[in-house]
Specification:
18% of the residues lie in helices and 34% in strands. The longest helix is centred in the last third of the chain and has 34 residues, at 624-657.
Length: 658
């Protein structure tokens, strides 16, 4: 029996982890408001959402640095801008000649009004002189506005349900990074446990990039630390007085309590490497809570449906706006009464030429019909509807059915919905809300020309046809050194950032140890050291069909040495590298990335016969009587043939009896 206690509060230098006294959140950079906020109606308002870091408490001295300008024609006696934070009023400003040009106004932010998730509201009442055009009324909050948050760090959460804390703070706008402690010797189950936890931790803040660093000792750690392994593999994994025994293949995971000023450490350990993997799979693939847990049995979870990418058009082609994880969207003054809804599909979706349709559902604000309005619906730049809405609205709900030409549909579809008025107005017209129960039917088959490294930029396709990567195996050499460990960690980080599912469940196996059944059912990424000498390329990325199933694929990443695998993977899978990939082979040379096509492509996909028949009946329903007659005729002929055969047998029996 091996008695393992709660992990020691490691003596990591507190200054390595402590947050700086303040941080800034810029409207243009962090909040994506490079064009600022323009308010152009007599009564207008815009909101700005932002987050405060989880591991700190805002202090006095926090402020909004507001840069604004406005029209010179505004009546200063009747024009005001109000700013509120989480529904608490901060300041009301007169819009006069003092802030007509770009002006900075510093507004203190009370600490009691700042939370993890916050909303700034800008509300304007602005009037212009009589007989001036409505467009002359405007107030602009510039994109260079920013927030300064003074904070006092406090102990991070030690509840596992708050993951990825304490390793990563999803609320922070700063560059994200954490460290992984290198085991003294590396068992394959511990390497798989490390890869799973790295991938799922990174996945929780995707698509933001995360730097994952491997350190040889606790003293080398400069970021929050992840420690995985048994006490034999991780000698620095020590215990404290009050312990929790772990026996045999049991696993233990938890968050240590740091000493004063120290960051907590996320740890996964066990009585054996298999126990470590059990605890890691439980932590990565299922919801957990509390400070620690003990696990003795294998974790079971339901793998994601094939091609059911998160936030994408589902494989059936039938979906609603809510299925894309899009909530109610308002067509109002804050977006100039125009919505752009992305409808994304995996790259192998091949949409039918006929049968696509959608029914948009809207909820209208009171008084909607008081202003003449037109509803314009466009898909990928083509106008599908242009309707007089006032003539259609009978109550507060409007339904707009629309047929969609199949040749318009592709992997990224932009649905643009606009509410247009005949001309400029001083008062903001009533808004409308696109409801999440709006329905779409985009039937499709699946086909892609493979191998094609260029498709990896689409969430690792074709290796993500199972979106949680549950059919993916990372194959590594028999000898696992630091280079292989770092390469697997870097690859796991990339898989976690790109996987289109809620979790990531791949496996790690040594070459030659994969059972035949598992090998035949899996797609594989091989990590290896290239054997050729004098090669011009420092690393090679190659995609090819699997030897055992031509519908599955193998991705081989080889480098001149195992130490070069990590930088090669980082360069191949970073966004600039992914966007440059093409062909079936990519070489990293001193001149950069070179892509080649060395083998012919083949068409890989599925044709859904029953769906084709269903769509044919939907679009050509007059053919239904003919189909029924044909089916009845076939059944009648089959019945007559069977009856004739039966009569002949009976006649033969009577003759034998006589």
């Amino acid at each position: 029996m091996l008695a393992l206690m709660a992990v020691v509060p490691f003596a990591i230098a507190s200054e390595s982890f402590s947050l700086t006294p303040s941080y800034e959140i810029h409207f243009d950079r962090e909040l994506g408001l490079s064009r600022g906020l323009r308010m152009r109606y007599t009564h207008d308002s815009h909101s700005v959402d932002f987050r405060c870091e989880s591991g700190s408490q805002p202090l006095l001295g926090s402020a909004l640095h507001l840069f604004l300008e406005h029209s010179s024609l505004l009546n200063p006696d009747r024009s005001f801008l109000s700013i509120s934070l989480n529904y608490g009023v901060l300041r009301s400003l007169r819009l006069d000649e003092t802030d007509q040009q770009a002006t900075e106004i510093v507004i203190p932010l009370p600490p009691n009004l700042l939370h993890r998730n916050n909303r700034l509201m800008f509300s304007v009442e602005q009037h212009n002189p009589v007989d001036t055009n409505p467009p002359s009324v405007w107030t602009l909050i510039l994109g260079r506005s920013y927030l300064t948050i003074h904070s006092n760090p406090f102990e991070a959460s030690r509840d596992l349900k708050e993951l990825p804390l304490p390793l990563l703070d999803p609320n922070s706008y700063r560059p994200k990074a954490f460290d992984v402690l290198l085991p003294e010797w590396i068992a394959p189950p511990v390497l798989e446990a490390t890869a799973l936890l790295v991938a799922n931790t990174v996945h929780r803040v995707a698509p933001e990039p995360v730097a994952v660093n491997v350190v040889a000792s606790i003293d080398d750690a400069k970021h929050p630390l992840l420690i995985i392994g048994t006490s034999h593999e991780q000698p620095e994994l020590r215990s404290v007085a009050a312990g929790l025994p772990v026996t045999g293949d049991e696993g233990l995971a938890g968050i240590s309590r740091g000493l004063a000023g120290l960051s907590p450490v996320l740890f996964v350990t066990g009585g054996s490497p298999e126990g470590v993997l059990r605890a890691a799979r439980r932590l990565a693939l299922t919801p957990v809570s509390g400070n620690r847990f003990l696990v003795a049995a294998e974790t079971r979870y339901k793998a994601a449906d094939r091609r059911a990418w998160k936030g994408f058009i589902p494989p059936s082609g039938h979906f609603s706006v809510s299925d894309l994880r899009i909530e109610e969207r308002t067509l109002g003054p804050e977006n100039d009464y125009t919505l752009v809804v992305p409808l994304r599909a995996p790259p192998d979706f091949r949409f039918f030429s006929d049968g696509a349709q959608m029914t948009l559902q809207f909820r209208m604000a009171p008084g909607f019909s008081s202003v003449p309005r037109r509803l314009v619906v466009q898909l990928n730049g083509m106008r599908l509807q242009d309707l007089d809405v006032n003539a259609m609205v009978k109550d507060s709900v409007l339904s707009v059915p629309t047929n969609v030409p199949g040749n318009l549909l592709r992997s990224l579809n932009l649905l643009t919905i606009s509410l247009l008025t005949p001309g400029p107005t001083e008062v903001a017209p009533p808004s409308a809300v696109l409801l999440p129960n709006s329905q779409f039917l985009f039937p499709c088959d699946y086909a892609a020309e493979l191998p094609d490294l260029g498709l990896l930029r689409f969430h690792l396709y074709p290796f993500s046809r199972s979106p949680d990567l549950s059919d993916l195996v990372i194959a590594i050499p028999r000898v696992i050194d630091r280079g292989i460990f770092e390469g697997v960690v870097e690859l796991a980080s990339s898989l976690g950032r790109l996987a289109p599912a809620d979790r990531v469940g791949f496996r790690v196996r040594q070459m030659g140890t994969l059972p035949e059944r598992e090998r035949n059912a899996s797609q594989t990424i091989y990590l290896s050291q290239s054997s050729g000498k004098g090669q011009l390329a420092s690393a090679i990325l190659r995609e090819a069909p699997s030897e055992w199933d031509r519908r599955k694929f193998v991705l081989t990443i080889s480098a001149a040495s195992t130490a070069r695998l990590k930088p090669a993977i980082e360069q191949f899978f970073a966004e600039p590298g992914l966007n440059r990939l093409s062909g079936d082979t990519a070489l990293l040379t001193t001149r950069g990335l070179t892509c080649l096509a060395t083998t012919p492509k083949s068409n890989v996909g599925e044709t859904l016969i029953l769906l084709h028949l269903e769509m044919w009946l939907r679009t050509d329903w007059l053919a239904l009587p003919g189909i029924l007659i044909a089916v009845s005729a076939v059944l009648f002929l089959a019945w007559r043939l069977a009856l004739e055969r039966y009569r002949r047998r009976q006649s033969a029996r009577w003759q034998e009896g006589e």
